[in-house]
Amino acid sequence: MSSLLTPSDLTHEDKVVWLEDPSQLDYVRQALDKTPRRRGKPRYHRDGRMIGFTELSDTAEADPDSGLQKRRVFYLLPHDRDAEPNGLYREGAPGEAVDPRTIEPRQVGRKTVRSQGGALA
To answer: For the chain, what is the largest distance between any 2 Cα atoms, rounded to a whole number of angstroms?
Structure first.
């Protein structure tokens, strides 16, 4: 789901909150997670670490089936380029990876030459 984000998935985003300085990272992975709240740091259930997340406006409605809010989470896994510069993603990047400099509320992040490790995006 994370690599298939569309602007319509993000219409209620109000703010991007960074837990780490994104300017130091070539890419972050983005995913749309279901959380019980619109604001605050969501629970994190992946390997690696959460880099940031979005907060939603007060008008955001919960998913009718689950009662949960859909929010973007930005993260990195232990084998990503920041931790292993000569590893698997020395060139290229995971499908859900985007340049953190392109992330704004209500806008899907974009791949760039930098996020792709010099490869064409």
So the answer is: 44
